[in-house]
């Protein structure tokens, strides 16, 4: 057997074909290969004719050192997971994936999303696996892949792409240095989006993205807290790489017509979705990877936090001031000052010197109408009194040599190492649950599961997760563990507030966009990240209103960010410095209070969208191209979004208090100004003069927006739970759309229907 860890091989020849219940198994022979020295192209030791080399070219390279005719064999399995979902796994015979359950390595929760019937048709040249709704065609010599919906080709590998002398530039599959590389040909006009929470342009053409979980240290560093190996093509397919390995996506960056996917692993587990719409493909994807359950109603209220509140007295004073100013709010967030040892450490030891008796403190907040959110992370400081207990109990992650794993990528303020909880160990899960139980017994409502990006590659997890997977899968395991603990301790739908993530993290709501800079570009990057994440991890995503760090936040930017936050899936103000609205002057207090009240009035609408997230796997916040896939302009719009399916929001990216002109794109159809009912016909760009009090919001014709009245006396969502609703409709709406509205605790109580347009 040739060492696949060092020499490159182009996987070329299919043989030993065996039909299976839902697909086909076969072997692929790989030929030793070399990249041409100094110029684009690949070659094997085969004859020029076999390689398709143009031997008559005057600039044909001479005296090339051919790689010889060494061969390797890889296994390949193609399986229908559903009528329009097909799985292609290719790896050496010794790869772990062949010995594990179908849902390995834990990103998927099930291995089917529907009818798995498949028909194999074989000729001398091809294999065709025909599903109910799509066909995968596999070339035998050389290996190629092409995906079809009926007669429309959606995807093809890059075998046609060659340089002038005929050397292939993008062989379909290359194995080299323990990695595997898939090259797809991008068609004329084909666009790609996805890859998780990326803060760059939403449409990814020309970008090279390294999908590796990082403490990104902001939204402008080029790093990502929540990358996801999922992408969507305007050619009509979506793809998911079911792996924890680092993935590099070259989206026409080096070669304009090639989407190159390189995985830091010897095996590739690729799942392709061929449904006609992105919405249906997300539904099919989340059927495999899980969906976010709708959180409690109070989670949709306003959250107030700061890094840091230093005492119970200070937090109770903030709560009291919010009530004095009649600012609705449901959650107050407590950052690490609740700990005695509080720098990159969670040991569950309550700091009673700062916050007194925990039960009394939580009760004090409850009397004001607030629930308590608490910061935690999965790291443990050796200075902690529980460090020895955790180490002796086997609750800390280790390296293969038995030494403790240490966080990487996040500097420690004191220079000491930080250990990590082994969140894959059932005994550790029980240990943490026992530590957390007194907190929830006292009434703590939610945990902010911060960090999690620091797991070192190569760590030896208790559940056997491979060392090259554990870094990226650690956030998924970490947030899943804490979500499960909260669910068990509270008996309700759990909720975390996580920063790090990977594929599958969306089923553990919610997440927020990390530490954005308090600038206009920080706000812009935040929205781009949220839209990109929504297409790969559809669920509950939010952000820190005002940004987390950086220049002194201006009143104007605070207002604009609050408007954006009011129409986001979850709403939280948080930062290094104060983020309470009265801290930015009377105008900011007035405007922000109005927008917070507007959000509370929309709680019935938010509740309906939450139902779509849970039952259909659609995201809460949506890029325009999700519902307007045939609109060539929609894909380029990453400063607007759909809030659910009926409302379009155009945040104002500005940090001043003066009116500004906002250019807004409205897709095809009839649209109404949410506040004035002014009518517009799309597709069109419009210009609006927007005062500091305003943010452009529109409703599509056919939109149904249930609302509830919010008076100045309303403190929180509990005050609105039993109030009757007013249902606002725009244009022609069926009675069934109104009758189908779901109430907070059963059938909706509708007092009035108001028709617009």
TrEMBL record:
Keywords: Glycosidase, Hydrolase. InterPro entries: Gal_mutarotase_sf_dom, GH, Glyco_hydro_31_C, Glyco_hydro_31_N_dom, Glyco_hydro_31_TIM, Glyco_hydro_b, Glycosyl_Hydrolase_31. It holds the Pfam family Glyco_hydro_31_2nd. It comes from the Bacteria. GO terms for biological process: carbohydrate metabolic process. Residues 617-705 form the Glycosyl hydrolase family 31 C-terminal domain. Residues 77-248 form the Glycoside hydrolase family 31 N-terminal domain. SUPFAM superfamilies: (Trans)glycosidases, Galactose mutarotase-like, Glycosyl hydrolase domain. Residues 294-608 form the Glycoside hydrolase family 31 TIM barrel domain. GO terms for molecular function: carbohydrate binding; hydrolase activity, hydrolyzing O-glycosyl compounds. Belongs to the glycosyl hydrolase 31 family. This is Uncharacterized protein.
